[in-house]
Amino acid sequence: MTMSEQDGAGVSRRSVLLSAGAAAGMLGLGGHSALQSLTRDETDAAVEGLFDETQVLNTACAPNCRGKCPLNVHVRDGQIKFVEPQMTDDERYRRGCLLGQSHVQRVYSPKRLKYPMVRSDWEPGAPNPGGRGEDAQFEQVSWDDALQYVADEMRRVRSEYGPESVFFHTGSGDNGMGTTIFGRLASMFGGTQQSWSIDSNVGVGFNRITGHGFFLPPTNESADWVNANTIIVWGSDLFKSQFQNDASKVLDALESGAKLVVVDPVYTTTASKADLWLPIKPGKDTHLALAMIHDVLAEGTYDDDFLRERTTAGALVREDTDEMLRMRDLDGDADDDRVVGIHAETGEPVPLEPDTYAAVELFGEYEVDGIRTTTGLSLLEEHVADYSPETVASVADLDPADIKTAAQWLATRGPGGIAPSYALGRYKYGHVFGQTYAILLALTGDYGKSGTIHAQHPSGTTLNSGEYSSPDGAPGTQSLSMHEIPAALEDGDPFPIKAIYGMESNMLANQFPNRQRWHDLLENVDMFAMADFHRTPTVQHADIILPAAHWFEREDITDAWGSHPHISHRTKAHEPLWDARDDYHIIAELADKLGYDELFLDDKRAELRKIASNDDRFDFDELRRKGNVRVEDEEAGIKYTDPFPTDTGRIELYDEDHPVEDDGTVLDLPRPIEDRTATDHDLADEYPLLFMQKHSKWRIHSQWADNAMIRKFNAEPTLDIHPSDAQDRDIDDGDYVRVYNDRGEVVVRASYNEGMRPGLINIDQGWWTDDYVHGSHQDLTHMEVNDLAPTFAFYDVRADVEPAPRDIDTSKYTAPEPSDWLEGYPNEGDN
Amino acid sequence: MTDYGMVIDLERCIGCNACAVSCSQENNVSLDKQWNRILTEGGDAMDTPEGSYPENGRDGTLSMNHLPLACQHCDNAPCVKVCPVNATYKRDDGIVEIDYDKCMGCRYCMSACPYNARVFNFDDPKTLPTDGTGNVEERKQGVVEKCTFCSHRVKEDLDPACTVACPADARIFGDLDDEESTASRYIEKYETEQLLDELETDPNTYYIRGEMSPGRTRSGNELEGTEKKAAGNPNGVATDGGDGQ
């Protein structure tokens, strides 16, 4: 903080305090001004005794934030009263966030599903798919009837179309054993399951270079982050999303002197903590990484020992074939496919072994046995000549000195790294960024050491469930990537999908891009069943609704992929409310009705014990007692210590496979490709604004959207817009606006935000359709994907904004009635 | 003597609201009220900066900080002075507390408090579940209420709920009379301020600005210097996987 800012702080701080009433007003749900009666109560104000009546049980939170935080639940009078972070086996990982600590209001949400229901105008053989959606009416049925409908339709579809025409759909709604158990039934039935076309972009590009990554690549466990000297957070507001539960780790690193660089077009909470903020123009991330490579090479601050030991920097690339020279090209041994470098002292060609220092030349052109070659690093150096910090600064709207500072901090301050988020992969060609930063970190030697960082969430641990999900005699499942499902639904390509059973997901009618298109696609399905505990828009879109138990209402095991090194246990805090059931028992009864009566045990705990027996790192009874057990060795917390799983066992700077993208770009070396972020894109004139949907701290995907505690702070969806963009369109702060493009529209309140880059607008991700006065943010998005790492490009979207039509009904938020996330919860006695 | 106080490291605070939520849950605060608010020092809306966006990557003036704000537990508390029925009082251990039996709802204290830290129950509290949350009794309609430093927890040698909840380790609760307490040491070592110190309210809440501290380095629930506790409940955690319910 500068002196001038400090001087001003007293004034602004005071005004903040005095304006606190305004903040309280935002919390208000229509407070009355009349003083109510002041009857005195005889209750002693002193609080005693409640702790004695309260039992504390272990459980775990596990939506797809990757936090997977072990939690304690306080239960009194049969009700959940309080949730707190549970002490972890390794105490450094004790944590939780505002969402984990708001499960009380999820369990008792007015939007809990209470009874099995069937859409009134649905019946087997006459599904009336046009009746689905927001206006659909439902009738209560018994569990037996509901599951019989599901089973009968699954059997019918299997016999008419084949087993793969039944889609066993799960999202990322929970990380208990639900998906594992569901997979066992799917495998026995022979149905279709989905693989991912979300968040699989950057990791796939990184994989081309290092052999690691599909989702974000592995990174050291978060307790090691304190040892980083430079942390470049790229396109992530990690103090707000995904990593906030591990915020202390980054803060400890900063307290110890690490430099924090934030690359983000938005001035975020994380940017506000940065030593250096690079307010990049959207879509220019690969350009920037190339400029940093340029600077590291130009300044000579690359790690030459690392390059010689663990990369193909010195490997020779043939000019005639654009492939790496192999020993077989030289000595005639046809099986010797080791790549070749030039020994710096002898000048002789020598083989490069995995993870073995080779004193080879890093730069230069060499003729070997009559073959003209160039080192991989020289090809890279030549390639990045077009991406000087000065050139890229003008493209990305940055200052060249800042680019150099970031590059040199990374290169010269010791172990550190880059923590990209999934946001980069929400631009169509995000995988090229993955390729580029993998190379940049190779130049700076930031792999396999304490303090190196490669992703914004650590690897965590995964439960080994052995062959549980593919039992003996099971035909197994078919797999379709998410982006391939539309063709299956619409054209029967490669096979039709005619029945869907979904759980732990709000994707199909709310979260997938181009929402209206999915509504149309789903009309091809005869039976759509959803199990959930809340009435999400996807549940509302189903034919058969199966009320599931909340996580705290069932015993379960959770692992911690993408997070921390513990396996956790969930204790059932109380029975599922109303007629809700544990997903396990729903699936087991469905299996019974499908004729697989031996597939699941009646006793879920015995089933969990069976699953857990596949993992010899922990004992199930010990886990139940302790709540969580650290199962990963400390040494395993440092990633990339083994030879890289590439052909050469090294990081391959030059990609001799020459992958080609859909526009013809060859990616032997990283070349920026842009879709809608390009300033000369076809849609740029008509839709001048780039639309993104940031992950906020208030939801994990669409979960918690109906949570009364969260809505207290974040009551309504808003459009974040720079005041200059708003004023150009005659939009005042707080006005309702229409955001639109050639696919659809959504109406929300505009919120001026000086931290938004002009030209970029945002609506936070995860709001339910019901929460908008009109439309949905997913009505703006599209399903176009790249060739090499097909991933929905949620942020690669153009739109424009105008004042909302005058007749738009905003009473949902502007009328004084209490809000519907509070109303409707029945009083005691009804549960 | 004991003089409880709070140090909040604003360099560590990420404005995540975990403390705000945990406070409301533990203290059964009505869903239309908030004892512990996370204010944004910046733009008009939550989590937005003040200043202007940089051009050509430089020369912007954006700045944003978060300021968690609840009762400051002042030594010279204006609320205590104005209460006509002595319902609000400063305890010997530094905590400013309200005797809800005595409070008659005149709200003089709310006018007197320069930190806007108090709320008034115009209506019956709205909670989910309707029976309330947390480990305190429900407060009736017609009384003023505010942060108690979780005195019901402190009594059991537990840190306040907000302090345990903070994923940034930004809150340090402790005895300001004990020179060795982390809170006292940080106040000594780091640049701290008491809000609106010109009003001479002398709060027991101190904010670190400038150099970041190591924060609350303990992971447990217990008050500093007391026996380790696995849960925010003196009875501990059931270790039978729930069989004993």
From TrEMBL, chain A:
InterPro entries: Asp_de-COase-like_dom_sf (IPR009010), MoPterin_dinucl-bd_dom (IPR006657), Mopterin_OxRdtase (IPR006656), Mopterin_OxRdtase_4Fe-4S_dom (IPR006963), Prok_Mopterin_Oxidored (IPR050612), TAT_signal (IPR006311)
Keyword set, alphabetical order: Iron, Iron-sulfur, Metal-binding, Oxidoreductase, Signal
Domain of life: Archaea
Keyword flag rRNA-binding: no
Domain 4Fe-4S Mo/W bis-MGD-type, chain residue ranges per copy: 54-111
Disordered: region residues: 456-479, 805-831
GO molecular function: iron-sulfur cluster binding; metal ion binding; molybdopterin cofactor binding; oxidoreductase activity
UniProt cross-references to PROSITE patterns, sorted A to Z: 4FE4S_MOW_BIS_MGD (PS51669), TAT (PS51318)
Gene3D superfamilies: 2.40.40.20, 3.40.50.12440, 3.40.50.740, Dimethylsulfoxide Reductase, domain 2
Polar residues bias spans: 458-468
Recorded family membership: Belongs to the prokaryotic molybdopterin-containing oxidoreductase family.
Name this polypeptide is given: Trimethylamine-N-oxide reductase
TrEMBL record, chain B:
GO molecular function, one term: oxidoreductase activity
Biased composition (Basic and acidic residues): 219-230
Keywords noted in UniProt: 4Fe-4S, Iron, Iron-sulfur, Metal-binding
Chain intervals for the UniProt region annotation (Disordered): 206-245
PROSITE patterns in alphabetical order: 4FE4S_FER_1, 4FE4S_FER_2
Keyword Iron set for record: yes
Domain 4Fe-4S ferredoxin-type, first and last residues per copy: 4-34, 60-93, 94-123
InterPro entries, A to Z: 4Fe4S_Fe-S-bd, 4Fe4S_Fe_S_CS, DsrO-like, ET_IronSulfur_Cluster-Binding
NCBIfam families: DsrO
Protein name: 4Fe-4S ferredoxin iron-sulfur binding domain-containing protein
Species for this entry: Natrinema gari JCM 14663
